[in-house]
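Database export, one record per block. Field names are fixed; values are copied verbatim from the stored entry.
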Amino acid sequence: MDHVTPGQYVQELLDKNGWSKRTLAMVIGMDESSVGKIVAGKKPVEASLALVLGEVFGVPAEEFLRLQRSYDLSLARLTAKPDPARARRAHLFGGLPVADMIKRRWIDVEDMRDVAAVEQAIAKFFGVSSPSEIEVLPHAAKKTNVFGEATPVQIAWLHRVKQIATGMMAATFSEASARDASRRLATLRSVADDVRKVPRIMSEAGIRFVIVESLPSAKIDGVCMWLSDDEPVIGLSMRHDRIDNFWFVLRHELEHVIQGHGRTAMMLDVDLDGQRDIEPDEERVANEAAAHFCVPQDMMAKFVARKSPFFADRDIMAFAHTIGVHPGLVAGQLQRRTGRYDRFRAHQVKVRSLVSPGSITDGWGDVAPLVP
């Protein structure tokens, strides 16, 4: 006999042994009516009872529990109502960094447990009428997949950059203005304080420059995106507050702008310091331009050949002075070439506090104002 419920199994065992319900009740010390309810499927077989029945009938107790779980699930399916919204909520709450978005005041919610309010706030953040309309922003994420999918955390950061940049004003953009900006930026490389001038140079070149603090686990360094064919945006996270990283990432994104990269898909740059994968041409070109901007690579190669494997501080400083850059830029290039990010740190001064006051900055306790 095929038994579907624990009760049917008990009845089968009773029949096999020639027992009545009363006999079983006497053996296990239970009243006969309770045994009747078990057989009828009206009383569940819990773990303690399964052990008793297993001992009495000489069968595994696990079989009673397996049948009980299967029966309970079948009953639940009869009354359960499908709710497509659950999958949407799983995506939103399980993927998007809702708690961080509330903390950073990207979305206005008083109580995270108020699901309806959170969904409405998230929809407003993404500029749609309901959460079901939220679409993944077009982008080109590298590192793991050259043109793969960004994570929900990264998408939230990208949208914040776009949200802020949309309300910014900038001069008329052209490729010539971007190349001129690169030349002007090159004159600022020797003195850390000169990073203060970067926001104005970007704006005068027609490039919207935004700094948005990274979100946990995002690992974003920067992005190049376009609001329209002549409205480029450069977003930096400054998750590494070092002069070499600032200039490398900024010049990397500027090269994307100069080359017109990212017009159809955002150029999302993740973990530039640790990058070692084979890259698409766009990223190779941007990396080469950024490295050469920080330290002319032919001169860097000659310096390494002369001084390797020992790089004294006095040699780094003398070389930096000769080529007219801050020693931190030489130190950063040495780290990238040697893979030793634990060395030469004394030269890598912090610059976020210098560049942020003149920039549109969101994070580190500040919330960038949005134009309605």
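Remark 1: The radius of gyration is 32 Å.
Remark 2: Residues 136-148 have pLDDT under 50 and may be disordered.
End of record.
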